[in-house]
């Protein structure tokens, strides 16, 4: 709901549990008044306070005691009387940069318009949201800024975006255009970011705010392994289930900035948007520029409340298409089983074993095309390698389908190898700067997706392969970041637009291909989770969470990812030991329980499993199929953090609280240690729940307040002779007694 108080000139944006209030001052400046727990009032004039600050703070409009720098701004400009970090910075035709945006008009409409060329949240009916557009004008330069706020009442979220419109006769350079800015009246916060590197993405880092600026950003041409386009400010006392959290998440996949600033009066400012670094956009007379969308979430119910809003909202109103609400298949990927060394005989042997385990999808990874026998050639040449796959792709797909499995295929469409037919024909199609080294990473270069003809080639070459056989899944990889960012076709004044134009081209490609093949399940990948962001989720409803498949490393990665992203968006696999990334040896059951935290699958040579492991794999697949709807679409609760702790626990609870999964992990064995207990969350306190493995019945209040006993030791490991139809036979081992142990419980509500 959006309310406008004409007399007070106040906008009140209301969701089910929150209020967001702005006010237009008599001077025309738009200020931020409040964001937090829902309010009844529509007039907060008393909250706007003025006094002289003296210490070099300029008077706005030369009015005594009127200082923009001392007021909470809604969308601050640069160079007038607010000298804090701006949300927008322009360079005009006369070379100056001072801006002065003031209220011109507003309109409130039902529903939510699309953002042209960009991914964004959406409505399925107009009554799901209202949208407020506030137009601000710099009268001197005749440039408008349109601030858009879409209020999703049911989802408790606000989607914000910004459009700059040049109504002058001159070209205006956009140096900085962030998507959201929120000012707070104090700096007593801690900042949460999701950071890491390749193979250890989205670790949770929580630090106090301090005077000055703190930020996370990407300058890599992708949202990146290093940082995620998300930031939260929480009170020091905020926990998983209690306390206040304010969060911003950017629906964008390229260079971003998430910034905080605490000023000299201890006011804090939170911002997010396209990274201004190496960015300039030439906005010609009459043109407009649309910035990406940011999603704002307030929670008064701790970090879990914040996460549930993002998970539900992104799961239902960002992700879209045929697969959005469908359970995802159990898969086998051949990458860590074979790497480039395979032929159709080996592929069919793995597929045959997979079919015997009840696995539903076979994914053929890198190496099936061109002359691709290692990673130094053929990216861009999307033609099947019949020296490896005799008889062609369709024949192999048909044979795998006959085993009862769907068939999936790996692509890396955004890249080109210098050793390839594509590069030989079009050496100028890659990002490059004339005269400078074309630096390769993983022996590849990046195609220049700012060029229409390059995008057209990608669309048609990938579509041709997808049309040639019954391909029902695509893994879309991207294995390097940008260097020498330049385009052969853009004039000098537009070269700092290339990174953003690349993203617009990529979004066009993904939109076109996923629209042509709406029933294919697309999974994005970027060297693992290097582009796990809301922008890609709009086109592809799941992401390979990390190239690191080690169960212990995945605890932190998956735990951190859950801060923002739904479980159904996470790809999680059981791999071989010693693990190929960290060389750790973990029990087969532990690997399975850890991977049952999203879209479950395997990435190893199934033909080399021991008889006991084969029995366990059958049990894992059967168990996961029994509970996958709960895991993929239930509410996720973080119970024990793996950061700084020897244990980790999480759970999945059905929306109607009828069923729950609880998983516990211990990293290192401890001698003569105390009993461990896990406290469930989110159950019906008045209901009874049956432990489906033992048949024991407990009250929901007991499971949450008294807790669940973690077995001190399990004395009987599964045997190859065990009945694999017993879903629990392969789920439990004696690993709790040793290093890297895990245990899983399945509870169902009973009368």
What do these coordinates show?
- The chain is of the alpha+beta class and 751 residues long.
- The strands form seven sheets. Strands 6, 7, 8, 9, 11, 12, 14, 15, 19 and 20 form a ten-stranded antiparallel β-sheet that branches.
- β7 (129-138) and β8 form a beta hairpin.
- α9 runs parallel beside α10 (588-595) and α10 runs parallel beside α11.
- The longest helix is centred in the last third of the chain and has 23 residues, at 611-633.
- The radius of gyration is 27 Å and the shape is globular.
- C-alpha Rg (nearest Å): 27 Å
The total count of helices amounts to: 12
Q: Averaging pLDDT over every residue, what do you get?
A: 95
Q: Distance N terminus to C terminus?
A: 40 Å
Write down how many β-strands occur, each being a DSSP E stretch of 2 or more residues. Answer: 38
For the biggest sheet, the summary is: 10 strands, antiparallel
Sequence stretches where pLDDT stays below 50 over 5 or more residues: none
Short description:
By secondary structure, this protein is of the alpha+beta class. The protein contains 12 helices and 38 strands. It is globular.
Annotate the secondary structure layout:
Blueprint: E1 2-5, E2 10-14, E3 18-24, E4 30-37, E5 88-91, E6 102-110, E7 129-138, E8 143-152, E9 157-166, E10 172-184, E11 190-197, E12 200-208, E13 212-217, E14 230-234, E15 245-251, E16 256-262, E17 268-274, E18 281-283, E19 288-290, E20 293-299, H1 302-317, E21 331-333, H2 335-338, H3 344-357, E22 361-364, H4 393-402, E23 406-411, E24 415-416, H5 421-425, E25 445-446, H6 452-468, E26 473-476, H7 498-516, E27 521-524, H8 534-537, E28 542-544, H9 551-561, E29 570-575, H10 588-595, E30 599-603, H11 611-633, E31 635-640, E32 647-653, E33 659-666, E34 676-678, E35 688-691, E36 697-699, H12 700-705, E37 708-710, E38 741-750
């Amino acid at each position: 709901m959006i309310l406008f108080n004409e007399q007070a000139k106040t906008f009140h944006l209301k969701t089910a549990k929150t209020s967001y209030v702005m006010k237009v001052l008599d001077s025309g400046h738009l200020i931020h008044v409040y964001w937090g727990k829902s309010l009844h009032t529509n007039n907060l004039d008393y909250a706007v306070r003025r006094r002289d600050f003296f210490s070099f703070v300029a008077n706005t409009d030369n009015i005594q005691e009127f200082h923009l720098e001392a007021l909470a701004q809604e969308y601050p400009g640069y160079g007038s009387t607010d000298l804090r970090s701006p949300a927008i910075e322009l360079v005009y035709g006369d070379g100056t940069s001072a801006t002065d945006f003031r209220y011109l008009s507003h309109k409130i409409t039902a529903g939510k318009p699309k953002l042209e060329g960009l991914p964004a949240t959406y409505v399925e009916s107009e009554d799901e949201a209202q949208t407020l557009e506030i137009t601000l004008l710099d009268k001197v330069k005749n440039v408008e800024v349109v601030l858009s706020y879409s209020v999703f009442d049911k989802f408790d979220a606000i989607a914000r975006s910004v459009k700059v419109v040049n109504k002058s006769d001159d070209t205006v350079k956009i140096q900085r255009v962030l998507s959201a800015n929120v000012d707070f009246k104090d700096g007593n916060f801690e900042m949460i970011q999701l950071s890491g590197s390749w193979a250890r993405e989205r670790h949770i880092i929580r630090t106090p705010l301090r005077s000055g600026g703190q930020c996370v950003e990407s300058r890599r041409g992708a949202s990146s392994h290093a940082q995620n386009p998300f930031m939260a400010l929480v009170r020091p006392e905020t926990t998983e289930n209690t306390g206040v959290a304010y969060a911003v998440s950017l629906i964008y996949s390229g260079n971003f900035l998430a910034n905080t600033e605490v000023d000299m009066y201890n006011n804090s400012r939170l911002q997010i948007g396209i990274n201004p670094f190496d960015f300039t956009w030439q906005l010609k007379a009459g043109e407009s520029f649309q910035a990406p969308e940011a999603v704002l979430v307030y929670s008064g119910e701790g970090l879990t409340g914040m996460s549930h809003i993002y998970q539900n909202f992104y799961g239902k109103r960002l992700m879209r298409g045929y697969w959005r609400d469908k359970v995802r298949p159990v898969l086998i990927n051949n990458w860590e089983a074979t790497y480039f060394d395979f032929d159709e005989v080996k592929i069919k042997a793995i597929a045959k074993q997979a079919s015997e385990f009840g696995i539903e999808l076979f994914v053929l990874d890198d190496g099936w095309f061109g002359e691709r026998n290692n990673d130094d050639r053929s990216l861009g040449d999307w033609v099947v390698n019949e020296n490896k796959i005799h008889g062609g792709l369709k024949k192999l797909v048909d044979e795998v389908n006959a085993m009862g499995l769907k068939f999936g295929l790996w692509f890396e469409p955004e890249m080109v190898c210098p050793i390839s037919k594509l590069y030989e024909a079009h050496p100028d199609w890659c990002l490059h700067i004339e005269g400078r080294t074309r630096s390769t990473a993983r022996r590849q270069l990046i195609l220049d997706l700012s060029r229409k003809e390059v995008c057209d080639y990608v669309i048609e070459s990938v579509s041709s392969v997808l049309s040639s056989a019954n391909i029902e899944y695509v893994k879309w990889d991207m294995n390097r970041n940008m260097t020498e960012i330049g385009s052969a076709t853009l004039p000098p004044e537009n070269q700092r637009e290339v990174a953003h134009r690349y993203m617009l081209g990529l979004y066009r490609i993904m939109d076109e291909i996923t629209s042509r093949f709406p029933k294919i399940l697309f999974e994005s990948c970027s060297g693992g989770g290097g582009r796990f962001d809301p922008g890609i989720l709009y086109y592809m409803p799941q992401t390979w969470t990390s190239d690191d498949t080690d169960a212990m490393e995945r605890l932190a990665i998956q735990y951190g990812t859950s801060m923002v992203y739904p479980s159904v968006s996470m790809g999680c696999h059981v791999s071989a030991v010693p693990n190929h990334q960290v060389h750790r040896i973990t029990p087969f059951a532990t690997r399975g329980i850890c991977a049952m935290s999203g879209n479950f699958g395997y990435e190893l040579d199934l033909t080399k499993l021991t008889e006991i492991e084969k029995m366990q794999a059958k049990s894992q697949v059967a168990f996961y199929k029994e509970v996958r709807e709960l895991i993929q679409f239930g509410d996720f609760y973080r119970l024990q953090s793996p950061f700084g702790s020897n244990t980790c626990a999480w759970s999945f609870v059905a929306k109607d609280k009828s069923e729950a999964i609880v998983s516990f992990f211990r990293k290192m064995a401890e001698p003569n240690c105390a009993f461990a207990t896990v406290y469930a969350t989110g159950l019906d306190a008045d209901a009874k729940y049956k432990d489906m493995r033992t048949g024991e019945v407990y009250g929901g209040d007991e499971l949450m307040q008294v807790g669940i006993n973690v077995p001190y030791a399990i004395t009987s490991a599964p045997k190859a002779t065990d009945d694999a139809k017993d879903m629990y036979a392969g789920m439990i081992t004696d690993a709790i007694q040793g290093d890297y142990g895990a245990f899983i419980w399945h509870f169902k509500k009973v009368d």
